[in-house]
């Protein structure tokens, strides 16, 4: 089976990616599973630039087809924060319970219509020959008044979806994958991978 290295150390992300890319004929392995331990300098200005940097770094180190994502939360009232710094917001080792509480505190007293936010996900694929393809998608919502839900991870418990009447952490993995920024971007990437495979035949 053909292999794709997914450039992350996040087991939750690897699980989501495997679920969505099922049926593509690729085996998805994490950097850890592939035995790759390379420092990645994420100095891009956008999610897409950072995803490409990650994928290129690991593709050059491994000689394999690599997928990488860069994703995060943009809150309009906070001028797009935490944005590309979502994972590093308040320090990389700070728990998401603390990060989420801080963001809700900063929005205290802010009405519904000004609590708009979105999750953004950019996925980059880099082939061994250096070819690059990307997919960028979003999921729109609002910042909740309180944390809710035990599914999902990261900022999911404070990301409220008005059309669902719950946070993204209250959705089942299947329901979340159907509408999430990462789910949409991965399905777009799945099409790209399938088209590339058929072009090679």
Net shape: globular
**Largest sheet data:** 8 strands, mixed
Please, what is the average pLDDT? 92
Helix content: 25-40%
Report on this structure.
The structure is a single chain. 32% of the residues lie in helices and 25% in strands. Strands 1, 2, 3, 4, 5, 6, 7 and 8 form an 8-stranded mixed β-sheet that branches. A hairpin with a 5-residue loop joins β3 (65-75) and β4. With 201 residues, it is of the alpha+beta class. α4 (173-179) crosses α5. The protein has a single domain (2-200), classed as Alpha-Beta Complex (Maf protein). It has helices at residues 11-20, 47-62, 96-106, 173-179, 181-200; strands at 2-6, 26-30, 65-75, 81-82, 116-126, 132-143, 159-161, 166-167.
Q: How would you concisely characterize the structure shown here?
A:
This protein has 201 residues and is an alpha+beta fold. The chain has 5 helices and 8 strands.
Features:
alpha+beta
Secondary-structure blueprint of this entry?
Blueprint: E1 2-6, H1 11-20, E2 26-30, H2 47-62, E3 65-75, E4 81-82, H3 96-106, E5 116-126, E6 132-143, E7 159-161, E8 166-167, H4 173-179, H5 181-200
Parallel strand pairs: 1-2, 1-3
Antiparallel strand pairs: 3-4, 3-5, 5-6, 6-7, 7-8
Helix pairs in contact: 4-5
